[in-house]
Amino acid sequence: MKKLSLVCLATWILSAPLLAALPTPRFRAVNIDTNIGIGYGVVIADMNGDKKPDIVLVDKAQVAWYENPAWTKHVIAEKLTELDHVCIAVQDLDGDGKAEVAVGAGWNPGDTVGSGANFFLLPSGDRVQPWSPVRLPHEPTVHRMHWIRTPSGSYELAVVPLHGRGNKNGQGEGVRIQAMRLPGKGEYTWRPDLIDSSLHMTHNFQPVRWEGKPWDELLVAGKEGVFHMVKSASGWARQQLVGNEGGETNFVGAGEVRDGRLPGHERFLATIEPMHGHQAVIYTPPGVGASRRFWERHVLDDQLIDGHAVACGDLLGTGSDQVVVGWRAMNRPGAKVGVKLFTALDDKGGQWRTDLIDDNHMACEDLRVGDLNGDGKPDIIAAGRATHNLVLYINETEKTAP
Which has the closest alpha carbon to 50: 31, 33, 67? Predict the structure, then answer.
């Protein structure tokens, strides 16, 4: 595999004490695959039970996993539908140490009536030969999916379409966010249960566990705002965290959302705004006694071109989370693409440092953060649309002296 030499460039001018307190990010880029189609989605999971995290990619016409440590490619499904595959969810569902896979396909955002497809893939015996697809219920414009843990301890497949059925220009019926339960013993069908049907242009979502319980809640980003959805015995409840209030007009929709912790341990949200937008934004909860209802908005960067990926994690070993953002500049010939890392400089997230991780080698469609070489440091794996590459950024950051 060809190794790329990239330099991390600090672009925020800081005082010497602040710089001394933070390590300098160092990432070594390694090409995993230089011939992907679009790279719609990338995830990290142990696919063969060897206790090593593998890389799983859903591409426009393939589903493949790359085996750690040599990153040998295993294609497990091809052309599930005539239209592109678009999303993937991977999780060990039965506790055997090997992940199961679901795939969303039939991607056509312009067809809000007849597009979309969902599949569960039954693994082959050795898990490297083709897997067998089982078609599941679906809504049009299937766009993102995650396995979510339920109060019973089992998993359901949560699926978020981009548009409501029959929508035009993001208007009309709300998006039907659903969760499908695996068939139990003696059952043969996957039954979809409705989570919410009130939002529009829901581009991405993330499972979280904010309530301190061993089952998942959801953060959903869309046209109207960012919402926290919690399941109880009476069903799902929705609370809006992000949006305009009191005559504000800054929020015009969010395309991506992830959560993290600041140096002062306060929770934050990271978004890309608007959908496919130019801004990397964080939100912090309103203080005690604050007059506003929604979380407070802080723009990290307003120079992205077609921002399409965000992840949070402690890549620098500071005890708090940084924000990784990727942009792709789709249909913008000559525009630079790349990946940036944002690091909070104070307990409340009022100031941030920006470091350039990839300078124009990665037209980022999706990215994830996770320790892929077992050294205890989270790495970055990213898939590039126009660059047609899958790149592992190995974290070689050295901790600063205490």
Answer: 67
Report phi then psi at 21, rounded to 5.
-80, -15
Closest CA to 325 of 395, 255, 266: 255
DSSP code for 84: B
Task: Measure Cα distances from 200 to 24, 89, 204, 273 in Å.
Answer: 40, 22, 11, 15
DSSP-assigned letters across all residues of 107-136: B-TT-TTT--EEEEEEPPSSSSSPPEEEEE
Tell me if 361 sits within 8 A of 30, measured CB to CB. no
Q: Give the integer Cα–Cα distance in Å for 349 and 243.
A: 19
Contact by Cβ (8 Å): 126, 82: no
The CA-CA-CA angle for residues 92, 226, 163, to 5°, reads 80
How far apart are the C-alpha atoms of 61 and 367, rounded to whole Å? Answer: 19
Whether the pLDDT of residue 12 is over 70: the answer is no
pTM of the full structure: 0.94
* Span 344-370, average pLDDT: 98
Interatomic CA distance for residues 320 and 282, integer angstroms: 14
- Residue 359, pLDDT above cutoff 70: yes
Sheet with 27-33, edge to edge strand ranges: 3-4, 27-33, 389-395, 379-384, 364-370
Question: Whats the size of the chain, residue-wise?
Answer: 402
Structure tokens at 159: 């699926």
Q: Is the pLDDT of residue 57 over 50?
A: yes
The number of angstroms, rounded, from the C-alpha of 182 to the middle of its chain's C-alpha atoms is 23
At 287 the pLDDT is 83
- 8-state DSSP, 189: S
Nearest CA among 161, 135, 163, 159 for reference residue 146 = 159
Q: What is the pLDDT of residues 94-122, one digit of tens each?
A: 999 999 999 999 999 999 999 999 999 99
Q: Are 176 and 112 in contact (CB under 8 A)?
A: no
331-339: long-range contacts, CB 8 A cutoff, minimum separation 24: 332/305, 332/306, 335/305, 336/305, 336/360, 337/305, 337/361, 337/362, 337/363, 337/364, 337/384, 337/386, 337/387, 338/362, 338/364, 339/364, 339/367, 339/380, 339/382, 339/393
d(CA 27, CA 384): 17
Rounded Cα distance, 98 and 193, in Å: 26
